[in-house]
């Protein structure tokens, strides 16, 4: 049975307007029904509280710490309406220390730019089909940082030839046959 994505609400937070529109287009092609877009973390916080998304896609630019602060605010703020909401961080900068910071801030997943439609679909399916327990300790709030049976690799567009890059239609077909957990 295919996923029912038309009732899913995703919040995209990215300071780059063309990237926001591209991510919106990819998600619409996958059948996501409601997409809100914010230009920065403060606007994202307002939209998060107002629209209560089912998932957040958050860009983390190279020179800015506001993405980490936003994640920690979602996870820890007493007025946060959905502290367990999945948060996918998208970044073009992936040194080990940065990945550790993202994980330790409480992000659910990480996508490295550039990425393919296949990679985006894989991450979305992984979050839905293998949710991690939510952990709350004095030092950490977020999805359990220990991963099991996680087969998503940090793929690069350069590792594909054009025939291997899936179309939006084939990405949607990849969702067919899955339970309608969403």
Key phrases:
182 residues, alpha/beta, 5-stranded parallel beta sheet, two-stranded antiparallel ribbon, 7 strands, globular, disordered C terminus
**Structural class based on helices, strands and sheet pairing:** alpha/beta
Largest sheet: 5 strands, parallel
> Which outline best applies?
globular
Mean pLDDT: 81
The number of E-state strands comes to 7
Rg calculated over all Cα atoms? 16 Å
Number of helices: 6
CA(first)-CA(last) distance: 11 Å
Strand content: 15-25%
Poorly predicted ranges: 149-182
Compressed to H and E, one letter per element, the order equals EHEHEHEHEHEEH
Trace the largest sheet across and list its strands. 2-1-3-4-5
Helix content bin: 25-40%
Summarize the model shown.
The protein is an alpha/beta fold and 182 residues long. It has helices at 17-29, 41-51, 66-76, 96-105, 117-129, 168-175; strands at 9-13, 34-38, 55-59, 87-91, 109-112, 134-136, 141-143. Helix 2 packs parallel to helix 3 and helix 5 packs parallel to helix 6.
Task: Explain what you see.
This protein is 36% helix and 16% strand. The chain is an alpha/beta fold. The strands form 2 sheets. It has a 5-stranded parallel beta sheet, with helices on both faces. A two-stranded antiparallel sheet has the order 6-7. It is globular. Mean pLDDT is 81; it is low at 149-182.
List strands and helices in order, with pairings.
Elements: E1 9-13, H1 17-29, E2 34-38, H2 41-51, E3 55-59, H3 66-76, E4 87-91, H4 96-105, E5 109-112, H5 117-129, E6 134-136, E7 141-143, H6 168-175
Parallel strand pairs: 1-2, 1-3, 3-4, 4-5
Antiparallel strand pairs: 6-7
């Amino acid at each position: 049975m295919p996923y029912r994505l038309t009732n899913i609400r995703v919040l995209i937070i990215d300071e780059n307007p063309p990237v926001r529109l591209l991510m919106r287009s990819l998600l619409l092609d996958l059948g996501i029904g409601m997409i809100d877009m914010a230009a920065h973390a403060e606007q994202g916080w307002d939209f998060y509280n107002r629209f209560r998304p089912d998932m957040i896609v958050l860009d983390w630019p190279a020179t800015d710490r506001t993405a980490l602060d936003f994640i920690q605010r979602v996870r820890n703020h007493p007025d946060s309406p959905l502290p367990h909401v999945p948060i996918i961080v998208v970044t073009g900068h992936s040194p080990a220390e940065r990945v550790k910071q993202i994980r330790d801030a409480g992000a659910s997943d990480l996508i490295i730019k550039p990425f393919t439609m296949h990679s985006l679909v894989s991450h979305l399916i992984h979050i839905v089909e293998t949710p991690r327990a939510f952990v709350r300790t004095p030092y950490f709030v977020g999805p359990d940082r220990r991963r099991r049976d996680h087969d998503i690799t940090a793929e690069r567009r350069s590792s594909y030839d054009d025939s291997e890059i899936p179309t939006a239609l084939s990405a949607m077909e990849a969702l067919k046959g899955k339970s309608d957990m969403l």
